[in-house]
Amino acid sequence: MTESCDVAIIGAGPIGLFSAFTCGMMGAKSIYIIDALPHIGGQCQALYPEKPIYDIPAYPFIEAKDLVQNLYQQAQVFKPIYALNQPITCLKPANSEWIIETTAAHYQAKAIILATGSGQICPNPLPLPEAKAYEGQGLLYSVSEKNALLNQNIIIVGGGDSALDWALLLCKQSKVALVHRRNQFRAHPNTLDKIYAAIALGDITLLEPYQLHRLIGPAPHLKMVELQSLKDGGLIQISADRVLAFFGLSSQSTHFSDFGIDQDKQGQIIVNPATCSTNLNGIFAIGDCATYSGKLKLIVSGFSEAASASHAIYPLLYPGKPRKIGYSTTQGIPNPSL
Amino acid sequence: MTESCDVAIIGAGPIGLFSAFTCGMMGAKSIYIIDALPHIGGQCQALYPEKPIYDIPAYPFIEAKDLVQNLYQQAQVFKPIYALNQPITCLKPANSEWIIETTAAHYQAKAIILATGSGQICPNPLPLPEAKAYEGQGLLYSVSEKNALLNQNIIIVGGGDSALDWALLLCKQSKVALVHRRNQFRAHPNTLDKIYAAIALGDITLLEPYQLHRLIGPAPHLKMVELQSLKDGGLIQISADRVLAFFGLSSQSTHFSDFGIDQDKQGQIIVNPATCSTNLNGIFAIGDCATYSGKLKLIVSGFSEAASASHAIYPLLYPGKPRKIGYSTTQGIPNPSL
Q: Hey, is B202 helix, strand or coil?
């Protein structure tokens, strides 16, 4: 089944969220916000939810997660529909509209706004040649269902919050070894207290300074892992059903050129700065995924681009109807139910 | 004496205030903000301080005065110097810098940002041919010193908050007549209660429905005013030392073309959208006073233009020094004392 809408926004980061609001201000009645991640907020939420941002206008500072929450609230008046956890697989024309295919559904929209930031955020992979063969079974980069990891030998690799949080959670139901290159962790003090307590109690086995050297077993199933000491280079082997590797996240730019959209060599989408339109009629790009002469990769620039794209989308929603621009102070916000 | 600075911002409205912040972020050490009005906030503060604005990113709504206050706070980290109550009289080059002359002082700056919005905000004049001759003495559009109006016959014309607030204040020290075309006022309910009470007590004489018809006396000194009834057209004359006329405010665009800056027929300053630079090297224009292809007169667009102008100003402040762009989340804000 294909869901129809006025505007489909791809990317639920700050710029995508604000563009839902600006499209609503321009009279869009049905707005989908599609994201590959299972949550809104994009990079802000995934990478630095509690870091303060200082350059949002009229906020001397604001934590990234609060920025996301406020933008979500602001957009809510227009009731956008969130389609999360859905990486895009295809964009293609349909009459004068566009079809967006994701891993879960199809959408048809009069206009598309690409607000994919620096790209799809993915876990950094384990740097071993055999890693790929174990992915999804013996080797995991995230845990979607805790119960699939019951009563197993679990090797957790990493020294950040994700590694430690999962070690604490899983040690209650499985045998957990924590492998880290150093004896220092980068995590909340509160988490550190709990980790040291769990190690002292023998609930978690700490192996440091070690790094993962080899995965052993009939791929994708794991039997053992080989670890290398960073002190003397010595190798040890231990039983393992699963490796959970937490080496941080990084972003991969999407190949929109596969769908006929002009990108530069860095993978940035080339737009007309006056409208944020791409080379394809009805497809717009804003925020860090877009580029033009003078482009600054600042959130404030992306907000402005959201307004520009929304104004340019208006004639696609209301062909031939003159656009009245007014100030929100005198007009208020449009009633989305009209 | 001439004050020297890195950047002079002309206009203390929201966009001017935010540009002080963005210039600070780009390393400007000394920033002047010059405005013709006696207060910051420009039109937001002068015309609708308590109206909600709905289209500021991450604010589902915010009153104009709070927006101004938050932008002021955000800029404060870079300690801009405010030069208020100073209409600009001249802009002229000086070596590779600029001199700004105001009614009160001279400033020399490496770069100028014009953020004058829809122009200088002025009181609407009394629509009588002889009005000009009485201005500043018999006819006032604002009160700068209350004591100059002690024990006089004062005619206040208008039905809004300014008229009523001054009537209430001055009736304690002078004989006040309030002249209005209708028997309805547009003012805060709280003010209305006080006005009706003062009229009932005889502290204020209400003359309605009347309009001012003629100023009488050896200009600029006033002796009498002639009022015309809007009911029957009849004329009355009453003694008057001063007329205070409150007919609202409107904005006048500045003739920057007098200083060699390219403006379009509507008086908007033509800028390069990538940098917000005008035709004159070192002079930039942002916000509602600026225009380019695709320009939207939205606050959010002005915020983004502030960032663009500040980035373009960097090489004027630090010639030959490469610019490192970073995110405020990772770099924090520059220490202005360094």
A: coil
H or E stretch at B125: none
Residue type, B320: G
Chain center to CA of B149: 24
Q: B162 is written with which tokens?
A: 């300014």
Tokens of A301: 């620039």
Say if CB B73 and CB B23 are below 8 A apart: no
If you measure CA to CA, which chain B residue comes closest to A18?
B57
Of A74, A301, A307, the CB nearest to B307: A301
The helix or strand, by DSSP H or E, that contains position A14, with its residue range, turns out to be: helix A14-25
Backbone angles phi, psi at A68, to 5 degrees: -60, -45
Q: Given an 8 Å threshold on Cβ–Cβ distance, is B294 in contact with A274?
A: yes
Residue A10: which H helix or E strand, with range?
Answer: strand A2-10
Q: Could B301 and A300 be called an inter-chain contact, meaning their C-beta atoms sit closer than 8 Å?
A: no
Q: Residue A332: which of B54, B307, B328 has the nearest Cβ?
A: B54
Task: Say which residues have a Cβ less than 8 Å from residue B188's Cβ, sequence separation at least 6.
Answer: B161
Residue B180 CB coordination number (10 Å) = 21
Identify the residue whose tokens are 């963005």. B22
Alpha helices per DSSP H over B250-326: 299-317
Do A72 and A40 touch, CB atoms closer than 8 A? yes
Taking contacts as CB-CB distances below 8 angstroms, the residues of chain B near A292 are 274
Q: pLDDT tens digit string along A53-94? A: 899 999 999 999 999 999 999 999 999 999 999 999 999 999
A325: chain B residues, CB-CB within 8 Å: 296-297
- B309/A256 Cα distance (integer angstroms): 31
CA atoms within 13 A on the CB side of A169: 13
Residue B48 has pLDDT above 90, yes or no: no
Residue A293 has pLDDT above 70, yes or no: yes
Whether residues A53 and B328 touch (CB distance < 8 A) is answered with yes
3-state DSSP call for residue B175? strand
Closest CA to B210 of B195, B232, B227, B226: B227
Sequence-separated (6 or more) residues with CB below 8 Å from residue A31 = A5, A6, A7, A8, A9, A20, A23, A24, A78, A79, A80, A81
Query: What is the dihedral sign for C-alpha B55, B56, B61, B67?
Result: negative
**Complex prediction ipTM:** 0.77
Please answer yes or no on whether A307 and B298 come within 8 Å at the CB atom. Answer: yes
Q: What average pLDDT score do residues B6-34 get?
A: 96
Q: Do the Cβ atoms of B325 and A74 come within 8 Å?
A: no
| Cβ separation B294–A301 shorter than 8 A | no
The packing angle between helices B299-317 and A299-317, to 10°, is 140
